[in-house]
Amino acid sequence: MHTLARSPLAVIEYGLDLAITEWNESAARQLGIARQDAIGRPIAELLPTPEDEGVWRRLLDEDSGERRLRHARSDGGHVACAWAHHRVLDPRGEAAGVLCIGRDVTAEIEASRRRAEQQEILRALVDNLDVIVWASDGRGVFTYLDGKGLTAGGVKPGEFVGLSAFDVFKEHENVGLRRALRGEQLHNVSEARGKPIETWFVPIKGERGEVDAVVGITLDLTESRRAEQELRERLSLIERQQQVIRQLSTPILQVWKGVLALPMIGVVDSVRTAEVMDSLLQAVVRTQARFALLDLTGVDAVDTRTASYLVELVRAIRLLGAEGIITGIRPSVAQTVVSLGLDLAEITTLSDLQAGLRHCIGRTPGDERARAGGPLRER
pLDDT at position 375, please? Predict the structure, then answer.
């Protein structure tokens, strides 16, 4: 017993009354209870085991064995011990107590719990996500293959286990694996068996720094590429529809020879104004117009940047040798223009489109008016 007292393992002995008769220094360190505080106390009181309350008494009837028990330490922590127990016999061969030799397995149990947790996470991953999880040894031979993503390719879980990736796939499809076997952790997008895939490669190195295995996660991009293409086509269609709507909402009309009218309706923002500016300037050049009417009768509001664009548009029309005229300004738009301090002194502004048309016809030479159908008459 003297030798056991100096053992690096915890040594505890108790009698038929469950009172502790021996408690070595290793037991004191593992369990956080000093020897003088343990000797003579009932072991069931000192080391209660809620998961198996009668275990200490039952050990009196067992010759030998091992139990794994979890104990509370005096510092508030917990320790798990694997106890190898042996009955202590008196000279008559009858049970006199129990000798327990224990080792701390707290870290071992925690590591086992983490491994089990990781297995559950892996199982949840391969069962519920459209991915392929695989692993190979240091030669590229598959050691694991599973995942819901295998279904799309008609491959069964574990089908390639024991086969070399270099035999299953073409050389250009194994570029990522070769790099991982050289110790490089990488992520790439490539093709395998004619399908676009995205793969993460994680090399696993041994004690000597050599790659012993490669773990990979592969995602089949076929469906996502198809969905992406559909989304692009839809966005393109929406953009074309919006372009048509903008063109319909801002038609450029030739209302008289040399006179263009641009009636604007709804909300006018800077993007729409920029498009209108380009279209109107091209129309002025194409038709050799002398006047361009910007009718804002149907516009309830403009932002500050748009108001500046409208003024710039009129000035750009003037640079092309035509006169830009703004008609039908509503009070809300007028307030925006005034608040910006924009100078409209050089720009002709009239109450409505009819007034603007009269202005243009009035400034057209008589012979041109005659050729265009005569002067505009009031009804």
Answer: 44
Please tell me whether residue 306 adopts helix, strand or coil conformation: helix
Q: Is 250-372 in CATH node 3.90.930.50?
A: no
Could you give the CA distance from residue 166 to residue 318 in angstroms, rounded to a whole number? 72
Instruction: Return all residues near 103 (Cβ < 8 A) that are at least 6 apart.
Output: 9, 10, 81, 82
- Residues 314-363 have pLDDT tens digits of 889 999 999 999 999 888 888 888 887 777 777 888 999 899 988 988 88
Judge if pTM exceeds 0.90.
no
Q: Whose CA is closest to 84, among 102, 98, 63, 60?
A: 102
| pLDDT reported for residue 379 | 32
**Cβ pair 27, 102 in contact under 8 A:** yes
Q: What are phi and psi of 77, to 5 degrees?
A: -85, -175
> Domain limits of the chain?
2-104, 126-223, 250-372
Other CB atoms within a 10 A radius of the CB of residue 66 amount to 11
Contact 208, 184 (CB under 8 A): no
Pairwise CA distance, residues 7 & 96, whole Å: 22
pLDDT per position as a tens digit, 236-258: 888 887 766 666 556 788 888 88
Residue 145 confidence (pLDDT): 94
Residue ranges of the chain with pLDDT lower than 50?
A: 372, 374-379
Q: Is the sign of the CA dihedral 311, 317, 323, 329 positive or negative?
A: negative
Considering only CA atoms, which of 30, 48, 44, 36 is closest in space to residue 101?
A: 30
Q: Rounded distance, CA 159 to CA 171, Å? A: 20
**Whose CA is closest to 141, among 168, 112, 107, 176?**
168
Predicted pLDDT of residue 81: 93
Are 118 and 104 within 8 A, CB to CB?
no
Measure CA of the first residue to CA of the last residue in the chain; give whole Å.
128
Task: Give domain 126-223's CATH superfamily.
Answer: PAS domain (3.30.450.20)
